[in-house]
Write a structure and sequence with these properties.
Layout (H helix, E strand, L loop, with lengths): L8 E5 L2 E9 L4 E6 L14 E17 L4 E9 L10 E6 L4 E6 L23 E13 L7 E13 L2
Parallel strand pairs: 2-9
Antiparallel strand pairs: 1-2, 3-7, 4-5, 4-8, 6-7, 8-9
């Protein structure tokens, strides 16, 4: 299972390929999530539990490679301390159609609660902050009763402070 986001670029973080979007301080987003199988048919998510969380990283350089449609990140280190995580809400809107939405609040990038504020240079900040938002998808195992499978689907946000 993977999530594809419209307008996103691809980054690879610790060996995991993910979609990445830019977000500025104070911005909030509602992102549509569509769950489909390999053939593109909707997956009924009626029995799924969807939650989300965020983790912050420092990146010393961010280089955009438009020809390859990718972002190259240099020297990624986990922020310490992480600060107070924002509340990210995931809501199922049409279970049978495999449709949900995730609300990214403006507090994801507000520079408060221990999260840093980084000055911009020509619209971009080096170093910058990378936020990995993970959607946790828990569902009953169809082959082994009583077991719950949990997938963590990562989405990256390059934070630009304004």
């Amino acid at each position: 299972m993977s999530l594809l986001l419209s307008g996103a670029k691809t980054i690879t973080f610790a060996g995991t390929e993910m979609q990445c979007l830019e977000i500025y301080t104070g911005e909030a987003y509602t992102i549509g999530l569509n769950f489909t199988d390999a053939g593109g048919s909707a997956i009924d998510i009626g029995g799924y539990t969807l939650t989300a969380g965020a983790k912050y990283y420092e990146v010393d350089t961010v280089v955009y490679n438009d020809n390859l449609g990718q972002i190259d990140l240099g020297n990624i280190t986990e922020q310490t301390p992480q600060g107070t995580p924002p509340t990210i809400t995931v809501t199922t809107t049409n279970a049978a159609g495999g449709i949900a939405s995730m609300f990214i609040p403006d507090t994801l990038t507000d520079g408060a609660s221990g999260r840093p504020t980084i000055a911009l240079t020509n619209g971009k900040g080096d170093p910058s902050t990378l936020v990995i938002v993970s959607v946790d998808v828990a569902r009953a195992d169809t082959g082994v009763p009583g077991n719950t499978n949990v997938n963590k689907e990562p989405i990256g946000f390059i934070v630009r402070y304004q």
